[in-house]
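Quick check before the chapter quiz. The format below is the same one you will see on the exam, so make sure you can read both the input and the output lines.
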Amino acid sequence: MTEARGDESAAVQHDARHHAQQSVQDGPSAHEGAARAATASAQGPLAQPFAAKPVQTPSEYRTLAGLLLGAAFLILGNGLFQTLIPLRLVRHGESTLVVGFIQSCYYLGFLLGAFTARRLIDRFGQHRVFIAFAALATILTQAFGAFELAATLGLIRLATGFAFMGLFSSIESWIQGTASNANRGRIFGTYTTINYFSLCTGQLLLNVGGPAGTTGFGLASALFAAAIIPVALLSGWPRMATGDANPSARPHSWIEVLRALTGATSLAVPGCIIAGFLYSGFYSLMPVFLVRSGFATANLSLFMGVCLLGALFTQRPMGRLSDRYARRVLVYRIALLSAALSAALLIFHEGAFLWLGAIAYVAVTFTQYGLVAGDTNDRIDPPLRVAIASLLLVLFSVGGMTGPAIASVFMTVLGPKGIFAYNGLSCLALAWAARRSRERITAC
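Here is the expected output.
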């Protein structure tokens, strides 16, 4: 008995020394990080500034370096590609409705991809799924530049959406699984800053070869291929979370995942769908508004680029702000501001006011998906994050799939300025959803 106790004591001392050495190597201990996260969570979603200063975790950025660089190339190519499409269709004489429905096919592909992306990530990991779908996007971009029939282009656009569902599921589940609660807003803000910087730069590449030719599509394809290199070669591939190693701990159906999501937060479903309305409306039909308003290609690319540049500068400040204050309060207030800007643009949509109003609108509105995603991930269990990341993109794609079609109807009935009426109503709906979710929490 004495020998057993002595062996047990020696083992405890050995474990303590090993734990101390591991803490020196890895920085702040996992227990310390968990305690800080628990403290932040206990304060509730409507809490005022957290008492503890957010943890500084440069190692998280180092771990994500390869992914963020690959995402930059990917989004740079997508920024060019998604604006080339409506320009090419309009110049081939397609109506606004046809353009809207072809663009909606992208989000339909997003929705279809949701049924396979999570299983592929669970089986092969985020890094391999990213590489495979980036290669597929490279092929599809070349195919889009080679065909002219609207039905064929719609099918290619659908397949492109399928590929990008896998790509963005990989990226966002990788980021959300790596980031801690205390730093999630900053890290996701860094990602979205890279996102909008790349989108902005992609718009400026529109003048290379002209939208009617295939040079732009070839360049977009090359950028998609370049995205593979840093993810394939750099270290920092994601490790499975502890709960992910137990398949029984993970919901096995979309219904179960959706039930877990709605049980954790009432904002995620309407928030992601309406964010899909807003983002897809701008990307898909703002170029159509500009062409119908007489913008030349050079001015159009500059306009789109400057608007997305405005979004770039608000991402990280909003991420920092959302780490200190309730994210859904920010969603509500920003949605009201966006609705006011949309109403102003509906009345004044020419000259300098159009430029200033659109820049301000995009700068504030394009922070909404990050806020909703951050609020959601604060409230769910870590083993669910891959499934939830895919589901959030599914909801976003539902809005993205229907948004361009609805916006094109507004533009057909009200003229090109109808896009601003569509934006304003969507923002009011988002404000109502955020307000309703706050009232439910207060009642609880």
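If your answer matched, good. Residues 1-57, 240-251 have pLDDT under 50 and may be disordered.
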